[in-house]
Automatic annotation (TrEMBL):
Residues 1-18 form the signal peptide. This is FAD-binding domain-containing protein. It holds the Pfam family BBE. It comes from Lentinula aciculospora. The keyword Signal applies.
Length: 581
């Protein structure tokens, strides 16, 4: 009787009652023609001691791992690898399989008595090739009540695409790209055509940049070219250096007609802007746009990845090729606080002129694609004078013929192959209308620098672009001028208590900015792992509608991820490897 009660309670809590056996996995694999992978830690070949993972110690393979440990292109092509490696580990238990991110060939990380564990890496991975793969995986996960996660390139600050014991759907092999000058979204009138780039959800921004260059187009991207254009980046909103003038990734429009001579109907209407090819947990293979499955289309444009379905491909409106004006400043380390103060005081002015980019305590990089070269130079004259004459830094200005030319010259590598976590906040535009609030914002940002953190101050919100409707990101994006992020990390041998301290330090450092901006929000893809009031912070007034859409398309709640729409909460066993608050 007690056993029956326990089983019933487990079912009510949606816990695993009967895990799939080896035979069950084999049958599932056979149905997929043997394509199911046993995913292992990236650094496994360097370890001779293992626990829970089959030993694969091999000196030549280990050397290849060491040489590519910090290479994001290699990492994104490995099923068991993540860019920020804490999500390869079980942080609550300090078990995993990491090398020294500061010196990958340091034998202290992998020699005895160091042990390689599976950590939080899913043991089974399916490289998705078709909608039928996804349907079969949903059915298997439902039948055995096991977690299912969606992994793309492994750029994941919040661990939403990992989880030991889960079945991982790996989108890496969906690599097709096509351009249709007269694309008509499914179910829409044939007269409504748009220049559209259609690509598989595994296609990287590097591939999209090259494709766009070949076709005289522009695709704004994340700062790291190995991020996939159709994955969590897009589904969570997606900002870029061009977001101020051309919107977030979920906004993508053709162009501003007054600049490029485009049809104003495309710019100012609610006609389709994107299309998603998606498979829902109910097994539906759909094309969602603003003519059909409009609710799902809304949810996928900002509701977050790995939540409403598995996106196989995306069609985004193509921007024409354009010149990119770039201003870059480099300053001495002791002048960072003065640069921050100047940029806060001039944030509104630069945003109104169409500039986007980011400021660091060591300098800045800003771009503009809507002014002429002469206009662009004139609009940043005050900044150039301040940097060169008052804080004795260097300023360069250039006009690059295409977005690719800009990207190749001015983007820098983001940390990879290392544990790294973030916290963020959107800063509303009305802050900049008050001298007192600007002073307080400057004080807060420089306070972060003073305690050893380096804020990245993104001029990324779509200020000039505005709000054209139809997206589910927090409305705070539409009323903000800055997106402020903090990052901090650790290494392979950091203790559990010290890891906890890192998370707490970041969150505490962001608290004064949260206090200054009540009612604002944060960018879900770069937010604090323990973001307070995350429902409002990530989605604002859209949250309840998104909950209803989640229930409609995933009534069995097969998809679940940390602080996602309809999140089951910390007590779900799938989150046992998350760090302590």
């Amino acid at each position: 009787m007690l056993f029956i009660f326990i089983v019933h309670a487990m079912i009510q809590l949606n816990l695993v009652v009967s895990l799939p056996t080896a035979s069950d996995w084999n049958i599932f694999n056979q149905s997929l023609e043997g394509r199911l992978l046993r995913s292992v830690p990236f650094a496994l070949p360097c370890f001779s001691l293992t626990d829970g993972v089959k030993s694969n110690h091999n000196a030549p393979s280990c050397m290849r791992v060491i040489n590519s440990y910090l290479d994001d292109e290699v990492r994104t092509a490995h099923a068991g690898s993540y860019i920020n490696t804490q999500w390869e580990t079980c942080q609550s238990k300090i078990s995993g399989c990491l090398l020294d991110s500061e010196q990958p060939d340091n034998p202290a990380a992998f020699s005895n008595p160091r042990v390689c564990n599976q950590g939080s890496i899913p043991e089974h991975t399916l490289p998705v090739e078709s909608a039928s793969d996804v349907v079969a995986s949903f059915n298997f996960a439902r039948d055995f009540n096991i977690p299912l996660v969606v992994k793309n390139t492994g750029h994941d600050y919040k661990g939403r695409s990992s989880g030991n014991g889960a079945l991982s759907l790996w989108m890496h092999h969906l690599q097709g790209i096509d351009f249709e000058p007269n694309f008509t979204p499914a179910g829409c009138p044939h007269g409504d055509t748009f220049p559209g780039i259609t690509f598989g959800s595994g296609v990287s921004f590097l591939s999209l940049i090259n494709f766009a260059e070949q076709h005289n187009l522009t695709v704004p991207t994340a700062g790291d070219g190995t991020v996939a254009g159709g994955g969590g980046y897009l589904q969570g909103g997606g900002h870029s250096v061009l977001s101020n003038a051309f919107g977030l990734a979920v906004d993508r429009v053709v162009c501003k007609s007054l600049l490029f001579g485009c049809n104003t109907r495309l710019v100012n209407s609610n006609h389709p802007q994107l299309q998603f090819e998606v498979v829902t947990p109910l097994g539906q293979h759909l094309f969602a746009n603003s003519c059909q499955f409009q609710d799902l289309f809304f949810a996928l444009r900002g509701g977050g990845g790995g939540t409403f379905g598995v996106v196989l491909g995306v069609t985004t409106l193509a921007l024409p090729q354009m010149e990119i004006h770039v201003v870059q400043a480099n300053i001495k380390a002791d002048q960072g606080s003065r640069l921050v103060e100047f940029m806060v005081d001039h944030t509104l002015e630069f945003a109104q002129s169409g500039w986007g980019g980011f400021t660091l305590p060591s300098g800045l990089t800003f771009v503009n694609a809507i002014l002429t070269s002469a206009q662009a130079k004139a609009s940043i004259a005050s900044m150039q004078k301040f940097v060169t004459q008052e804080i004795y830094g260097n300023v360069t200005f250039s006009t690059e013929p295409t977005y690719k030319a800009y990207y190749q010259k001015f983007t820098t590598n983001v940390p990879r192959g290392t544990p790294l976590t973030t916290s963020s906040r959107l800063v509303p535009a009305d802050i900049f209308n008050s001298n007192n609030q600007r002073e307080e914002l400057t004080k807060i940002l420089n306070g972060m620098i003073a305690i050893g953190l380096e804020p990245i101050i993104f001029a990324a919100p779509p200020f000039l672009y505005g709000d054209r409707g139809g997206t589910s990101v927090t409305p705070s994006w539409r009323t903000s001028l800055l997106h402020v992020t903090l990052t901090d990390g650790w290494n392979f041998n950091t203790s559990k208590s010290d890891i906890t301290t890192v998370y707490r330090k970041l969150s505490a450092a962001m608290d004064p900015l949260r206090k200054l901006t009540p009612g604002s929000g944060a960018y879900q893809n770069e937010a604090d792992v323990f973001e307070p009031n995350y429902e409002h912070s990530f989605w604002g007034e859209n949250y309840n509608r998104l909950r209803s859409i989640k229930q409609k398309y995933d009534p069995d709640h097969i998809l679940d991820c940390w602080q996602c729409i309809g999140w089951k909460g910390r007590n779900d066993p799938r989150y046992e490897c998350y760090p302590l608050e």
